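queue> pop job 88
queue> type: inverse folding (structure -> sequence)
queue> payload:
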């Protein structure tokens, strides 16, 4: 397993991303059903292109992803935000949503950015559906974590030379350097396409979302009580950071 993780880390360093199988088809289907239940209950934000549910807790079965992240971001890496994103089917006449962009924290930092060998974050995209050309597979520029492609933000149609579209089976995961450039594409299939999105940072980077509040909320749920003590500790490290510095003595207010 460690040799496989090293291979994925090498792909991250060289190309800015790695793709591998993470969840079984059954686990991917169960996670998708959980997201659909939340969406059906009116949780999250929705427009005519997508439905996003924020403040989720990571699904299980992510040992390989954690090995890769620890090797790439350091042993004190933590979760900065975690959500779902369902692209709704359309006839192609609507927009694609987000255009070309990097991820947190790079979109908040003026260039020049730190050297790519000192990453400030990784984006983790877990495919709960198969990703295809026709259902909104993520478009990206390989090697763009090293240098921003000139003129890429002016590409409104997703036709930038050298760009690729992620195609992967359900249960796959894409781990990408957060400085890489990517964009949404249109879902012109007949069915919604759902994924989980996590942003991970080294321990010294301020999380994007209030992960402490999410941790307190999750600890009060029945789901947390069903985890083993080891699983609870791993999740606490992921949400709060292993150093636990600067944390509230009581749950923070919304």
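queue> result:
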């Amino acid at each position: 397993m460690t040799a496989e993780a090293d291979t994925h880390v090498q792909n991250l360093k060289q190309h800015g991303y790695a793709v591998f199988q993470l969840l079984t088809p059954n686990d991917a289907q169960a996670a998708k059903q959980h997201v659909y239940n939340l969406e059906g209950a009116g949780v999250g934000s929705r427009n005519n292109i997508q439905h996003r549910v924020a403040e989720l807790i990571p699904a299980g079965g992510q040992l390989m992803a954690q090995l890769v992240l620890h090797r790439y971001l350091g042993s004190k890496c933590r979760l900065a935000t975690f959500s779902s994103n369902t692209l709704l089917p359309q006839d192609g006449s609507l927009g694609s949503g987000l255009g070309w962009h990097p991820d947190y924290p790079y979109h908040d930092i003026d260039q020049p950015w730190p050297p790519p060998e000192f990453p400030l974050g990784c984006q983790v995209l877990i495919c709960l559906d198969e990703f295809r050309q026709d259902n909104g597979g993520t478009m990206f520029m390989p090697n763009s974590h090293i240098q921003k492609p000139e003129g890429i933000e002016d590409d409104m149609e997703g036709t930038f030379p050298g760009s690729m579209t992620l195609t992967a089976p359900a249960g796959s995961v894409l781990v990408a350097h957060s400085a890489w450039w990517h964009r949404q594409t249109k879902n012109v299939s007949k069915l919604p396409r759902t994924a989980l999105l996590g942003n991970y940072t080294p321990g010294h980077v301020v999380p994007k979302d209030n992960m402490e509040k999410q941790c307190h909320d999750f600890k009060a749920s029945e789901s947390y009580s069903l985890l083993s003590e080891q699983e609870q500790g791993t999740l606490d490290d992921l949400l709060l950071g292993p150093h636990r510095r600067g944390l509230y003595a009581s749950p923070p207010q919304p």
